[in-house]
């Protein structure tokens, strides 16, 4: 089935799996804001004259998520989707420990949700998240999430988030749980 652009609101497109040969297809993610989906785009630019791009599968985030943007971790094994509709980040594990692209059903089975209001230290603000940046330090991995609601950014310590282990991705539970803040909440960064 073909995908009509008028039925979607595409926001972002990024490659996460390179196209290395004429028989190997590359993979990219295309963010569909209107339908709350990440479309898997297959492409192959190594076939000579027969350049092909297909969009046949999508990871459903949820129709009320209102996804705005996404960012990958450093090895592109995970994507962090900024959802303005419910002020969350959806974390989708894209590849297994060997670097093979997972099936859509496997990707959907262990999506982790990070609730951004948990990082407001009890303050009642609408987060209205819009963008994120991923960064690593010697202390670990972090997301910096832009917030229109607090006119600043929220720092999410990914070391304190229960993400599926890449070594055990196939055995991950279908409903991952978040730890009850084993580490202190990071301070809210604000432009006030």
Compressed to H and E, one letter per element, the order equals EEEEEEEHEEEEE
Q: Major sheet: size, sense and barrel closure?
A: 4 strands, antiparallel
CA-CA gap between termini: 49 Å
Using the CA coordinates, give the radius of gyration. Answer: 17 Å
Describe the structure.
The termini are far apart. With 192 residues, the chain is mainly β. It is 3% helix and 42% strand. It has one helix at 104-109, and strands spanning 10-17, 26-32, 37-44, 52-60, 67-72, 78-83, 88-93, 112-115, 129-137, 140-147, 152-157, 188-190. The strands form three sheets. The protein has a four-stranded antiparallel β-sheet.
In a nutshell, what does this entry contain?
It contains 1 helix and 12 strands, in the order βββββββαβββββ. The protein has 192 residues and is mainly β. The protein is globular.
């Amino acid at each position: 089935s073909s995908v009509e652009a008028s039925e979607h609101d595409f926001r972002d497109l990024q490659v996460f799996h390179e196209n290395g040969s004429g028989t190997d297809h590359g993979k990219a993610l295309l963010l569909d804001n209107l339908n709350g989906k990440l479309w898997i785009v297959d492409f192959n630019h190594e076939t000579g004259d027969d350049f092909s791009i297909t969009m046949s599968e999508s990871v459903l985030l949820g129709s009320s998520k209102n996804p705005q943007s996404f960012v990958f971790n450093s090895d592109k094994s995970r994507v962090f989707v900024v959802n303005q509709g419910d002020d969350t980040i959806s974390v989708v594990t894209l590849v297994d420990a060997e670097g093979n692209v997972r099936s859509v059903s496997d990707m959907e089975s262990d999506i982790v949700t990070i609730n951004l209001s948990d990082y407001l230290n009890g303050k009642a603000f609408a987060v209205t998240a819009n963008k994120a940046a991923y960064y690593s330090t010697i202390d670990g991995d972090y997301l910096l999430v832009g917030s229109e609601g607090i006119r600043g950014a929220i720092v999410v310590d990914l070391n304190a988030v229960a993400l599926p282990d890449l070594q055990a991705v196939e055995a991950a539970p279908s409903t991952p749980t978040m730890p009850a803040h084993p580490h202190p909440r990071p301070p809210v960064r604000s432009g006030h």
